[in-house]
Design a protein that fits this description.
Shape: elongated
Number of strands: 9
Radius of gyration: 20 Å
Helix content: 40-55%
Largest sheet: 6 strands, mixed
Structural class: alpha/beta
Number of helices: 13
Order of helices and strands: EEHEHHEEHEEHHEHEHHHHHH
Strand content: 5-15%
Length: 301
Amino acid sequence: MTYETLHYATMGRTATITLDRPDRLNAITMTMPGEIRRAVETAEADPEVHVIVVAGAGRAFCAGYDLQDSAQDPDVDHPCQQERHPWDPMVDYATMKRFTEDFMSLWRARKPTIAKVQGYAVAGGSDIAMCCDLLVMADDARIGYPPTRVWGCPTTAMWTYRLGPMRAKQLMFTGDTIDGKTAAAWGLATEAVPLAELDDAVLRLAARIEGVPASHLAMHKMLVNQVMLSMGLEQTQMLATLFDGITRHDPEGLWFRRHAQVHGYKDAVRMRDSGAPIPEGDGARAKIAELEAELRRRRAP
């Protein structure tokens, strides 16, 4: 099987799925989630594979969805950024739920999955990492979901299940990222090591796991996963995916998009993460009107 956005390889009893868009920090395209699912299915079907490692090529694990071009282009019209009015939340939901289910193939796989995280695992990239059973991180790697400040909600809803309610609220209220050392101290990462030791640490963990019979690994994983399902993971993900669409189409989300269209996506992200108050309610609507007037002026013949 060939892939556009990732590389699949096996060595002994370990399969490695490497996100392979290093020039874009392995940012997620519309095709990447489905390719991750297909790679997981390939590993599932291989009786020799006992462990699946997910990695990122280059400087980062994954910097989230590749939104720079689509966020800036006023003419882009796809299910998750609709310029049509009224917005259809069920079309948005169907698209994002499919992506969520693709990522969750890592969680549902009968075989243990390990995320090897260097650089950034942020926004949608953190969703991919936390759908893996275990995380091994470089000390200086960063993980978090900055779009919770505006224009996003983590559709996999894994933060609470992995960190507990207080830590999850801290990260979702602030949009802050934490480094690998903190992630390990909080129990999010299995281990945090210097970047130069990351490959060896993942190989050691995979080697320790892969000697266990596949049937035993499957049973133990199913048992732990059932606890999370009993706590309502699937229902929480449904709500989170609906909320994600709302955050991108409410006044605050529309302000972010219009700001990106007028001033550029990087400037919108800088504003989002600066800590300055984000326009909301009527203030956001007034800003939207100004930005849309500027867009009309730029597009006038």
